[in-house]
């Protein structure tokens, strides 16, 4: 067996690991595969005689490739801010295997995957490598090009942004989450009575996908008729410190729901799909 054949064989051993690393960082199966392929190209062109830990070496390489891709993505977003859909949605039709990507997104956690998109490239890489793969900060520092102390601060900041600072007491948070989860489940399966029961009779829905008078729906009955059985798959999350929800099929953000809850009923719902408005929200995952 030639050295190149041996390298190819060893690379296949670690391919799934590298794909998972890249997918958590990039949130796109096609981009993750591109990053993994680039890692193979770099391996095939390298002198491997001094590599003692091939898995670690490849993890470092794919992480650096992903960091470059994230920085490029961020630059593109800044150039076109407010002129296109979020990249996660714009790439939806480009998925090379929708079923595989859906399974991968589900294994990572849809809300978690979407909310990582709020981090800058260095934060995302540091957070994923340390939290998901337990990579030491000394190694992460070399990847992101920072000191170990600075890398720890970056990861800590990312953790706070993803986990969020809760803006309401724990008891209220649990109660509000139960209401939101029940509302989401009822809307998805078309349980009309349960939808109405979760809503204040004078509830107001504001939907930024619509224009004019059609952007506002008033009353529990009208809202229930509008969404019953037609709601997109979504799950609860923290939105500006309170319980809300995100709709993110296959990890691609479609919209965010902000809820106002008073006396155990939903009194206001704001559906936010505009990319600029979404980026201004403080989004965080909710614990299990």
Account of the protein in words:
By secondary structure, the chain is α+β, with helices and mostly antiparallel strands. The protein folds into 2 domains: 3-163, Butyryl-CoA Dehydrogenase, subunit A, domain 3; 170-284, Nuclear Transport Factor 2, Chain: A, CATH 3.10.450. Helix content is 57%, strand content 15%. A 7-stranded mixed sheet has the order 2-1-6-5-4-3-7. α3 (54-79) packs across α8 (137-144) and α7 (121-133) packs across α9. The radius of gyration is 22 Å and the shape is elongated. The model is unreliable at 80-96 (pLDDT under 50).
From the structure above, extract its key features.
single chain; 288 residues; Nuclear Transport Factor 2, Chain: A; 2 domains; seven-stranded mixed beta sheet; 15% strand
Can you lay out the helices and strands and say which pair or pack?
Blueprint: H1 3-26, H2 29-44, H3 54-79, H4 87-90, H5 98-108, H6 110-115, H7 121-133, H8 137-144, H9 148-163, H10 170-189, H11 192-198, E1 199-207, E2 216-218, H12 220-227, E3 234-239, E4 242-247, E5 255-262, E6 265-272, H13 275-279, E7 283-284
Parallel strand pairs: 1-6
Antiparallel strand pairs: 1-2, 3-4, 3-7, 4-5, 5-6
Helix pairs in contact: 1-2, 1-3, 2-3, 3-7, 3-8, 7-8, 7-9, 8-9, 10-11, 11-12
